[in-house]
Predict the 3D structure of the following.
Amino acid sequence: MNYHLIQTDSRVISFHPETYAIHVFKDMDAANTFIAEAHDDRKTVHPTTPGDSELDIQAANICMCETCNLACTYCFFHSGTFDRTGGRMLSLETLIDTYHKLKAHSKSGLKSLGFYGGEPLMNFEVIRDFVEYVEKESDHKISFGVITNGTLITNEMVDFFNKHKFYVSISLDGTKKYNDKCRIAKNGKSSFDMVMETLKLLKDKQFLLSSQSTLANDFFRDYKKGTVEEYFSTYYNAGFDNIIPVTADLKDGYTDQEYENMKAFFEDVVDYSIDCLLDENRKYQPPVFIAKMISNLASKRYEGECQAGRKFVFVTVTGDIYPCQMHYMCDVEKMSCGNEIRKKETMTSRYDIEECRDCYCKNICAMWCPGGSLVLNFSEKSVIPARCLEQKAILDRIIIRLADVRKDPEMWKKFTANLVDFSLHYSVANYLGEC
């Protein structure tokens, strides 16, 4: 059995990647003795590969336009143009026609539709008319969401999001200092200040508001271990319900010091998350992807494989269908032809990747993205070092903290009850892009 060992100042913790079993030992000798005597008789759950699934479209991200009012430094989509001419808008006629194609290729029924860009709210009128059409036409509830830079939201849009119970994600990259270095407004204003003005309109919101926070070199260069509370306070004090911090996928990568600080940051994120889940009167919530990873470990569930091209698709401004926005960026594996939609034929699994096969994170990994690897490395069967570091830092810290929590039965009971409560309130169904 291949155990992963974590050595702390006072003990050694073992983790079994197949069964998620965690054991604590006083020293390395005791851990090695246990491993030498262990028998490979635990029940191993064998994951299904994405190649086992048929085309059954349940969710889609819809590109409303190929333009944006920001010019983010790390944007692979070149200010939302996807390296095309730029400026194109998705028409209502094309969107309705594509919606019916999606329905015709959905055995289980469409569950969620997300509006994407560029900056999707530059084409808000089409979003509004389409949602009203779908809600009249569909025989079942479909969830709607939008991923926006948050600079163009109006009172009319807020009323619309409230009425249709949207999930809204606003991109914001930490404090003003770091956000404005990466998220550059074309009008010369501070994009951070523009978002803060928008958030004043959302004080009476009736929908979930999250932020995907993409963090790059400057943030990690300056990060000091133990200061994560300041980072989260920027969001929660502004009215966000949940924050999803991620590393920017950068062609030039990160320096050794930035990698070291990145590790410290995500360890602090885990500590913050578990402390939230131990507090019955918690005011704030842990990042949903951290809670999901903890839940998977506690319930011994494997992380599912990417279903882009089978259960999830990306719709372009011309109504064409691709597995995801990354495949559209690279112009590979177009799935639509007339009224037909073909499934993505070659589905890559993380179990196919050499670097992943012997990695102790392989069954729990939520960071590998075939589309991201395709754009950055020109191959789905590859990894992005920053994502690997992020995943390992998170998993190691979760294992250490769970070993502590499980020592106290009352603490473990409280922790698991709060985790279940959080999972029910912030269900994956409320967070698009998880299919």
